[in-house]
């Protein structure tokens, strides 16, 4: 257990693993905008441009005042200002950010692959993550800054990113989500005003229900009410780069859960994750999230629901006008909206039984790709994901483009 704190963060990443612009909405390099990182600190400069890809940075303001970062990426031979391909928004999972799509080689990372295939790639970063830019009035040191869960990420962050991309491109958008990114997508798509901006959605490790999670350490965290313990410490931000949280989770393993194979204890067995790149991944992960977000995820596990945040009976009455929080009704996702889902037999978070529950509630029949040996991390960081997963996803998108009456520039993307 001596080395446990050093390896904790990356695996916790994979657990639970009106727009504002600058002048015309485009910028590269430094800016005087108060919430904007310098060029050297930007995702474009860190991971995308060094590989030869054009990259632009945008800021989107949510209805509740958060300033989100969006990156736009084109192929090494493309012009970022004259994109002809269909826009694709990549939405990351919990404790991650937009860098998740660019952590491996250009032949293995989905962000690069989609750009090379001619798609107009947009990269989302939710509130609180490294690449986003805070809030119009709240500081990250204030409790109120962290008063949100995946509910707000779906209905505010994802909604505003889609709205901005739609306003720039005048096109409907493909969504790709992983893990929490699929929770956000499914919740958002139950809202007609959001669904109408989406051409199709591809969901990796799709989650709307979590009551069959089998990961031993996750179940231990839920059983001991880790969310309440963290609140008891006076914390509202979840930052697993802090010694306090690393040591707290370390104590959950000691004598209770076999964490010698920590990755498997959290996500299930992964077949193809490149562990030799862990030091590099740690340069970027994990990103912060909120304690409220963790509590919302734990509510899903405990209650077997896909609902808005449960405040308790009295506050639910105040917030929702009913005793229990309203469910996100998967039946409300338009039957005409094409969905593609890929899930794995070794995923201890997006369990096959819970995926089936999701499918039963949808009115459509999504295209499915099941990989028996894949775990939760493999869909994002497998060395074979290009062949095993992404080729199938891109084929799905191309078929949707060919079937669409509006083809931007006549290209596949």
Strand order of the largest sheet: 1-2-4-3-5-6-9-10
Taking pLDDT < 50 over at least 5 consecutive residues as the criterion, the unreliable ranges are 1-38, 407-412
User: Which structural class do you get from the secondary structure elements?
Assistant: alpha/beta
Question: How far apart lie the N and C ends?
Answer: 48 Å
CATH fold type? Rossmann fold
CATH superfamily, by name, is: Alpha/Beta hydrolase fold, catalytic domain
**Portion of residues within helices:** 25-40%
Note down, in words, how this protein is organized.
By secondary structure, the chain is α/β, with parallel strands linked by helices. Helix content is 36%, strand content 13%. It has helices at residues 4-14, 43-48, 110-116, 150-169, 180-189, 192-195, 216-223, 226-232, 243-253, 262-267, 278-282, 291-303, 313-320, 352-361, 378-381, 385-403, and strands at 54-61, 67-74, 87-91, 120-125, 173-178, 198-204, 237-238, 289-290, 339-344, 367-371. Helix 4 crosses helix 5 (180-189). The strands form two sheets. It has an eight-stranded mixed beta sheet with strand order 1-2-4-3-5-6-9-10, sandwiched between helices. The chain has a two-stranded antiparallel sheet with strand order 7-8. Residues 45-103 form the Partial AB-hydrolase lipase domain.
């Amino acid at each position: 257990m001596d080395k446990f704190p050093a390896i904790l963060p990356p695996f916790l990443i994979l657990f639970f693993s009106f727009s504002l612009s600058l002048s015309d909405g485009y910028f590269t390099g430094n800016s005087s905008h108060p919430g904007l990182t310098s060029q050297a600190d930007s995702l474009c400069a860190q991971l995308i441009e060094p590989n030869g890809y054009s990259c632009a940075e945008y800021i989107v303001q949510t209805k509740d005042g958060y300033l989100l970062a969006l990156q736009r990426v084109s192929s090494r031979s493309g012009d970022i200002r004259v994109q002809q391909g269909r826009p694709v928004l990549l939405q990351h999972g919990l404790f991650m950010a937009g860098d998740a799509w660019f952590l491996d080689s250009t032949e293995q990372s989905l962000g690069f692959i989609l750009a090379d295939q001619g798609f107009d790639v947009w990269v989302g970063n939710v509130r609180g993550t490294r690449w986003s830019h805070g809030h119009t009035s709240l500081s990250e040191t204030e409790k109120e800054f962290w008063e949100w869960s995946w509910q707000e990420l779906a209905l505010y962050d994802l909604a505003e990113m889609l709205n901005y991309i739609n306003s720039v491109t005048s096109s409907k958008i493909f969504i790709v989500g992983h893990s929490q990114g699929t929770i956000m997508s499914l919740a958002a798509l139950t809202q007609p005003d959001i669904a109408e901006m989406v051409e199709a959605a591809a969901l990796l490790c799709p989650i709307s229900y979590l009551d069959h999670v089998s990961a031993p350490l996750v179940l231990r965290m839920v059983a001991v009410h880790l969310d309440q313990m963290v609140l008891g410490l006076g914390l509202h931000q979840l930052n697993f780069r802090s010694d306090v949280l690393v040591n707290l989770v370390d104590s959950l393993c000691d004598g209770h859960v076999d964490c010698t194979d920590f990755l498997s204890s959290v996500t299930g067995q992964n077949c193809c994750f490149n562990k030799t790149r862990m030091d590099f991944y740690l340069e970027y992960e994990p990103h912060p999230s909120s304690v409220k977000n963790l509590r919302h995820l734990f509510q899903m596990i405990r209650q077997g629901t896909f609902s808005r945040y449960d405040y308790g009976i009295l506050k639910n009455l105040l917030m929702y006008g009913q005793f229990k929080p309203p469910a996100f009704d998967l039946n409300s996702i338009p039957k005409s909206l094409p969905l593609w889902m890929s899930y794995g037999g070794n995923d201890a978070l997006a369990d096959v039984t819970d995926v089936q529950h999701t499918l039963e509630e949808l009115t459509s029949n999504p295209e499915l790709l099941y990989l028996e040996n894949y775990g939760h991390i493999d869909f994002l960081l497998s060395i074979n994901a290009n062949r095993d997963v992404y080729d199938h996803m891109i084929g799905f998108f191309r078929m949707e483009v060919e079937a669409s009456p509006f083809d931007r520039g006549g290209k596949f993307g």
